[in-house]
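We treat protein structure as text, and this decision shapes the records that our systems exchange. The tokens are whole numbers drawn from a learned vocabulary of local backbone shapes. One such record is reproduced below, unchanged from the form in which we store it:
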Amino acid sequence: MLTYIIRRLLYAIPIIIGVNVLTAVLFFYVNTPEDMARKILGEKNVTPAAIENWKQDHGYNLPTFVNTKEEGVQKITQTIFFQKSVPLLWLDFGKSDRNNIDISREIRTRMWASLAISLPMIVAGLIIINLFLAMMLAYYRATYIDIWGLVLAVVLMSVSTLFYIIGGQFILGKLLKLFPISGYDTGLDSFKFLVLPVVIGIAASIGSGVRFYRTVFLEEINKDYVRTARAKGLTEGKVLFKHAMKNAMIPVLTNVVVSIPFLFYGSLILETFFAIPGLGNFTIDAIQSQDFAIVRSMVYLGSILYIAGLILTDISYTLVDPRVRFE
């Protein structure tokens, strides 16, 4: 088991380096330092001297990938790529391009607001509600409960998330005045601001989640071991909840664990509409203000979290499927 985990962690190292290099190439090749300076300083009436001063102040005055004026290792180290991208490997995100704020400090501060939204959504919505409803539909398969439940799931997943947000704000926030429409506070006072976005996030995910898990359970209950269990006289509930659910855990774990990046990112749309100062809102603001240092850092951070999620998925497979440990 330990050897398997170490091997998976070693496999992730070249992937992380490759993601870092690819991110740098996309950002620095498509957007030159001159382009970034013009977009931040303003497209009109920007003098070459102002562009050079901005490049000097923000460390973009060096060559992009190779510094032919230097000798030895400094040909690589005295470049924009090395000084801006290599520190990302140890999660040193540096300063923003627009207002020189510390990106790492902002991430550490804002991640808690994103977790406050995403963690209840994943635990209550994805794991408890979606799994429970999907098992109920599978248990009552081919009945009116299953048919109308599936129809309702398709209808729910066909509705835009914006409809849930606007409808929830209007009904629960404006008409019934149960929760504030937007805003955020620290400590226990933040609870009243988080209930509405969490409820809306869960409601928006029920349709697709129930439909996916129902398909997984139906595939399992038609296998030979389930028919054998029924032939031995086990009840349908015990067959479904004890035997089929355990063997359906691989696709369930895949869907749950790869959601880990969204724990830290929160929801881009929810955080924007409800004015919650999380990482999703942080990313949207950086895109709108064209702060490339923040956008680059968030893209890289999202890639790292996704790779970590895949590693945890592989490790979780070994806990539920002995064949993975054997291989």
